[in-house]
């Protein structure tokens, strides 16, 4: 079973250290997106990369709509990978929706996690005025989902620049667009629906492990006010705002992202 999960999720293990650090990709991406980040941690950590079922080089035949039509299926992917590798005290680095997936996994099995590092988290993308503004009206999300169904390539061409928001680095936008386009449109749409229509605000106070929130100053997908909201709801959390644009600082501004993670983990090592 363990071997099957390692193959199913295309698990890759590198690094010379013993402390396990898992990097979990965001919507429409795969583990390759972490290549600018992971070399900085290879000396001190055991680095675990994987692809969610249906993405990257995972076993797409394992995809079942009834499992993955909510975030719970992806939470199960994370916990099964951790169990298959017999890991404890995991540092879990999640980008975008994986921040929330990691949070939900830590609520289910807190003993498995030492820290959560959230890059651009959003517990709810929908506006819920007057108390909460996630950035999108429901009608906008519905239009995006309809566009995915009618013209998937057109959706990818529109959405990739919105996510990356680094016009001076067009190669990153192109890479993200290609990643979107290489994913099965049905799987991508179901993941998008699970991501953009979920509301996990009530789960945040249940997170019982220390959390670092990395937030870009200018992010239209998960705005700064959302990062501040996540920080206010998780009792043991640190908010680090990067002077950066877009939703993918691990690709567009890897040095800043590495510095934020490294400083946070150094503090933890000093405490212990």
Automatic annotation (TrEMBL):
It comes from the Bacteria. InterPro entries: AB_hydrolase_1, AB_hydrolase_fold. Residues 20-254 form the AB hydrolase-1 domain. Belongs to the AB hydrolase superfamily. PANTHER family: ESTERASE-RELATED (PTHR43039). This is Sigma factor SigB regulation protein RsbQ. It comes from Fodinibius salipaludis.
